[in-house]
Amino acid sequence: MRKLGKFRVEEMENQFPVLTMEERRQTIGGINILGMSDFERACLYHYIGNTGDTINLGSSTFMGIASAAANCGSVTSSSWVDIGGNMYHKRTVNMYGCDDYDRALGTCTIYYDMCGNAVGMKDYYDFNMDDATRSEQAQRDTRFGSLIPGSAYRIYYGIHD
User: Fold this and answer.
1) Reduced 3-state DSSP string for the chain
2) Which pairing describes strands 153-158 and 55-56: parallel, antiparallel, or unpaired?
């Protein structure tokens, strides 16, 4: 085995990539936060806050998610559930085609009333590695995110089980 010897700092300069201050501000745990929507950033910061407290969404945020689910999400499963004596259509929706929500929700559950109106939602923010329906980039982001210290938490709106 060959001895490497000592290097001077000047010799090692430019041997390893070093993030600039601006790049450090734009990156958390390998995830570029500049490419994230306000909702995705808020969810990530809540995770890093390490409280594990549930987030209850406001109606405008929920309506944006429901609209995105209808336009670019794909339903992976659905069933009817009885909640409080009323029947609701429960749909698991893959949000990985929805730019403003895919890095926060991934796959979430949305509830619809008998008329087809979105009335509720639930999700668990946890950097879950089990979902095999992600793109390679989304899988990398999830893997990096799982290394960030934080606490998983629930996200709710309206009707849910």
Assistant:
1) CCCCCCCCHHHHCCCCCCCCHHHHHHEECCEEHHHCCHHHHHHHHHHHCCCCCCEECCHHHHHHHHHHHHHHCEEEEEEEEEECCEEEEEEEEECCCCCCCCCCCCEEEEEECCCCCEEEEEEEECCCCCCCCCCHHHHHHHHHHCCCCCCCEEEEEECCC
2) parallel
Q: Report pTM.
A: 0.78
Write the pLDDT tens digit of every residue in 37-96.
Answer: 889 988 998 999 989 999 999 999 999 999 999 999 999 999 999 999 999 999 999 998
